[in-house]
Specification:
Mean pLDDT: 87
Shape: rod-shaped
Distance between the termini: 87 Å
Strand content: 25-35%
Structural class: alpha/beta
Oligomer: single chain
């Protein structure tokens, strides 16, 4: 008969017949708190001062009030599947020597399994935790199954040890989930798991994690300080992924959606790939992973927040947004591989006016640190991104080697156009560096920038060439060409009585022009002189003294500008 419906005398007789370690069967029994306490008192072991049970069947049982199994020992099979705990459930420091099954159990209050030991398999599949669920410092020596479980409150697995496989497939965490410092010695499975708040795995240890996810997290996936001992694939659709000081001891791949990734001081000795996933993840049966928890997220773009302190020799980034990424302090940045479409920040568009002077930036890729530095300058124009957290105290001296390393990385990957942008950034940082660049060097760099944009802006060099040629033509028409073309004159004297005649051929000095100097004829002559000067040739045209000096200056400057133009065109085509 049901223990709850026995007569008092029969119930007392039954309880008196129990001894510690005996098996009990109370499936479907409704327990009040006093009735459960009486049962556990009857199983009290005076040696250990704790309750000791053999095979315990509580399938579909209902517990009103506090269900206190704290420090109890289940020597056999413990079955609580489909049980209902209407109050708090206490299994703190309990020991399950056999299998423990809580499938489809409902915990309406808080459930505490802190420091509990599961020596056999532990099954919590489809269990519902409506309050907080505590498994801190719990030990699972067998397989731990939490598939399709629902955690409506906080889920605490800090310092928990999973010696066998841990299955959280399709589990739902509506509150914060904490796995900090947990140890997963077997395979950790979180396929289709959903975290509606943060998922904390700080300093957790994954010895054999072969596949972690795909999981969905509306908050942050915190892996800072975690250790991955084997090859692993992490598949996350999350708002943010933190991997500060995370250590990978084997190859790893991070397939991400929506996430902003902080990879500061991460350590890995083998190839590691961070890639954006364009389409929703798919579970093995072909169904796409539901991403309702991320409704309201701007887009599925993966953004890198920081690579500071990382040795990038084995790092591959694919299809990620690097416009807000911090690169200063990254080691072996020149060996970084960028695949797919990796975007960087851009300079402010359009022409801006500062007082009477126009300011316009040629479009190119920029780093987040440069964006922040330029935005904090007194002469800054709107459009630079000042909201770059962590970019303080970074200036041109720190950014120059970063641009140089990225330029080499692009050149090694045969991406010449990308390398050109980072060469431009490197030269810009040298031009603005007042600590490592002398005043004379800054002056030369300023001229190099002004004339040809560091030999990368062909239109600028061509504009200067055209301007110089126009000035030369105007000066020649105004001062360089003589009034009239000079004519040769032959003079000689015929001796009386005949004989040889000696002629002296002379040429009159060119006369400075007067009257109308800007005529079509004079323009053609000036253009001829100028075009010959561009290719470093003499036109043979008669010139005034001023015109001679104008031609000399023209022959010295215009070939240089022509060379800069040709090189700039070549560099842009090559790069």
């Amino acid at each position: 008969m049901c223990l709850a419906h026995l007569a008092d005398a029969d119930r007392d007789a039954y309880l008196a017949s129990l001894t510690p370690g005996v098996g009990i069967d109370h499936r479907g029994t409704p327990f009040t708190e006093p009735l459960l306490d009486a049962l556990l008192d009857a199983l009290h072991d005076p040696t250990t001062q704790q309750s000791r049970l053999g095979d315990a069947w509580f399938t579909s049982a209902a517990f009103d009030g506090f269900a206190g199994f704290d420090s109890a020992t289940f020597q056999g099979f413990a079955a609580f599947d489909s049980a209902t705990f209407r109050g708090d459930a206490g299994f703190t420091s309990a020991t399950f020597q056999g299998d423990a099954w809580f499938e489809s159990a409902t915990f309406e209050g808080d459930a505490s399994f802190d420091s509990a030991t599961f020596q056999g398999n532990a099954g919590f599949a489809s269990a519902a935790f409506e309050g907080d669920a505590g498994f801190a410092s719990a030990t699972f020596q067998g397989v731990a199954r939490f598939a399709s479980a629902t955690f409506e409150g906080f889920a605490w697995f800090e310092l928990a040890t999973f010696e066998g496989d841990a299955g959280f497939a399709s589990a739902t965490f509506q509150g914060d989930a904490r796995f900090a410092s947990a140890t997963f010695q077997g395979v950790a499975r979180f396929a289709s798991a959903t975290f509606e708040h943060d998922a904390g795995f700080e300093e957790a240890v994954f010895n054999r994690a072969a596949s972690f996810g795909p999981l969905v997290c509306a908050g942050q996936v915190k892996l800072s300080g975690a250790v991955f001992g084997g090859p692993v694939t992490l598949s996350f659709a999350a708002c943010r992924v933190e991997c500060r000081r995370t250590r990978w001891s084997s190859t790893a791949e991070l397939r991400l959606r929506y996430a902003t990734v902080d990879f500061s001081h991460a350590v890995f000795e083998y190839p590691l790939t961070i890639a954006a996933e364009a389409a929703p993840f798919v579970v093995p049966d072909g169904r796409p992973v539901a991403e309702q928890a991320l409704v309201g997220a701007p887009d599925a773009t993966v953004r890198m927040a920081s690579l500071r302190g990382v040795d990038a020799a084995h790092l591959v980034l694919a299809d990620v947004d690097l416009s807000g990424c911090l690169f200063t302090g990254t080691v072996h940045l020149d060996q970084l591989r960028l695949e797919g479409t990796c975007s960087f920040g851009r300079v402010p568009p359009r022409t801006h006016w500062r007082y009477w002077r126009p300011i316009r930036f040629t479009q190119r890729r920029t780093l987040a640190e440069e964006q922040h530095w330029r935005a904090t300058q007194p002469t800054a124009v709107p459009g630079w991104n000042v909201a770059v957290f962590g970019a303080e105290n970074v200036g041109p001296a720190q950014l120059e080697p970063v641009y140089r390393a990225l330029r080499k990385a692009f050149e090694d990957s045969k991406n010449e156009p990308g390398a050109a942008d980072f060469y431009y950034g490197e030269m810009e940082m040298r031009r603005h560096d007042r600590t490592g660049t002398t005043r004379a060097q800054r002056g030369l760099l300023h001229g190099y920038w002004l004339l040809s944009g560091y030999n990368l802006r062909a239109s600028r060099a061509l504009g200067w060439l055209a301007t110089t040629m126009l000035i030369t033509i105007v000066l020649l028409m105004g001062f360089g060409l003589p009034q009239d073309s000079t004519k040769q004159e032959a003079t000689g004297t015929v001796p009386p009585g005949g004989g040889e005649v000696t002629f002296e051929i002379d040429k009159a000095d060119p006369k400075n022009p007067t009257g109308n100097r800007f005529t079509g004829e004079r323009f053609e002559k000036a253009l001829n002189v100028t075009l010959n000067s561009v290719v470093f040739r003499s036109s043979g045209q008669d010139l005034t003294t001023a015109g001679t000096y104008i031609e000399m200056v023209s022959r010295a400057t215009e070939p240089v500008l022509l060379g800069l133009t040709v090189l700039a065109v070549r560099n842009r085509v090559k790069r």
